[in-house]
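User: I'm preparing a small set of examples for a lab meeting where we compare how different chains pack in three dimensions. I only have the primary sequence for this one, and I'd like the structure in token form so I can line it up with the others. Please keep the answer compact; I'll paste it straight into my notes.
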Amino acid sequence: MQLGMIGLGRMGGNMTARLEQHGHDVKTYDPGQPSTASTLAELRDQLEAPRAFWLMIPAGPVTESAFQELLELADAGDTIVDGGNSNFRDSQRRYADAKGKGIHFVDAGVSGGIWGLKLGYCLMVGGDDEPVTRLEPIFRDLAPDDGYAHVGASGAGHFVKMVHNGIEYGLMQAYAEGFEVMAKSEFELDLQAIAGIWRYGSVVRSWLLELLHDALEKNGNELANIKGYVEDSGEGRWTIAEAIAEDVPVPVITAALFARFASRQDESYAAKITAALRNEFGGHAVRSE
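Assistant: Understood. Below is the structure token output for the 289-residue chain.
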């Protein structure tokens, strides 16, 4: 099947390679990477109608700009797939804008990271039945066995991926806290070995635990080469915002997001306030800078 891939970064480049390995004809556009096309217009001309364009670029202004350009270039019956981590509300709006021009829009939540080329990508797809069904050969070859589902109407794919990433925040934070408790214990524990045995038979075994074992193996138990500064790309915030709108308590995901905020502070001003107050009401000692 033919596809136009827009964006050849760590995800888009590997997804292109995986599709080509499965016999698909992938045309490409990325101004920063060797591509089959030098413009989106040229990419359009390299594809046969009805065309399928796959956006695998950063969510936000970059995706919006490319989407608007494609709306002007694409013909009725063509399909635009957004495989980035866009907000599902933006995807619903883009679906409506595309539908007004007779163009299909599909939102695809993609999970798999740099391992997707070898292991496949979990795909959570939202959109109308017609374009999703037509593109299922692409989705099924990108995914491992049983790793693809058409999860619902427009926006559902990115909504499910948003919640997926919120859950991921909580899982990573739980591992992080547990391993810190062990690292600071009275025992001389080999954390790499512990992560290793927990991969087999333990109720907390997971792919994230396997990756943690790999990280400890590469960097040592002290993780001396890694700074404890953790960014977030938005999905955790969006998950919490939706949970508030739905009156659903999500204390674990919320705490995990706030822990990421705390990781970015060289020193916490809030902690200074607390130390100062303890000194004022109780005469507790404070440490000077």
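A couple of notes for your slides: The mean pLDDT is 96. The two ends are 63 Å apart (CA to CA).

User: Perfect, thanks.
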